[in-house]
Amino acid sequence: MAKQLRRKPVLSKKKVDRRPATVPESTEGMRLNKFVAHCGIASRREAAELVKQGHVTINGEVVIEPFYQIKVEDIVKYKGKVIRPEIRRVYYLMNKPKNVITTTADEKGRKTVLDLVADRVEERVFPVGRLDRDTTGLLLLTNDGELAQKMTHPSYKMKKIYHATLDKNISNEDLKKIQAGLELEDGPAPVDSAEFIVERPHNEVGITIHIGRNRIVRRIFSHLGYEVLKLDRVYLGGLTKKDLPRGFVRQLTKQEVIMLKHFTGK
């Protein structure tokens, strides 16, 4: 059942973490970016960037080499806080509302998707991929760095379907151009399909893609002179918005997790 994203008052005292600061033996020899990803900070690719930016220290020293190999006696910190690999993997599906940032933190103090689940999810999770601030729809939150990396890697061709509402009706000719694939400033933009939505005005288009470049759907339509007024992701790797209203979140079922891992070959 979907859970409503409403903050609840904190009734219990903050738990004291008495686990040892050093890393588990099972992580010895693991590359630093993989270690950070397994701690639920970010996907492995994003974790490598965090390391290069100097956000990670080992035994009090900043390490900017993602391929550093972890030792049992190491104390690893991210932004000053000790981090350890998450033991329990969790997977949450959110129907993201508008005006929420898809990131783990925002320097301008704007609300993020993690703010919405802060009192719902005990584990440290991060969003898989990005939906821009004005885009709504399906977003996966997890601490499974390996799955996140595969879901966002182009080689796995994770299927995503968007419902786009444009500022004007789109012509059949332009729709065919999108179906054939446009050449944008940063390279080709192949789509799996682009169709009018049945029994809806011709300014509403369903577009299926597997590429994940920044604001790619909006840029596809903008290239042909159309402005996207609303953009909603309605399908993500086999997951749909069924029984998940806007602004709600739910845990994936075991079958859904198995399905995602099957799609990514994990």
How is this structure best described in words?
- The protein is of the alpha+beta class and 266 residues long.
- It folds into three domains: 25-82, Roll (Structural Genomics Hypothetical 15.5 Kd Protein In mrcA-pckA Intergenic Region, Chain A); 91-154 and 239-264, Alpha-Beta Plaits; 159-236, 2-Layer Sandwich (Pseudouridine synthase).
- The chain is built from seven helices and 16 strands.
- It has helices at residues 32-38, 44-52, 113-116, 145-152, 172-180, 216-223, 254-264, and strands spanning 3-4, 56-58, 61-62, 76-78, 81-82, 91-96, 126-127, 136-142, 160-166, 182-184, 187-189, 193-196, 204-209, 228-236, 239-240, 248-251.
- The strands form three sheets. Strands 1, 6, 7, 8, 9, 12, 13, 14, 15 and 16 form a ten-stranded mixed sheet that branches.
- α1 crosses α2.
- The relative contact order is 0.16.
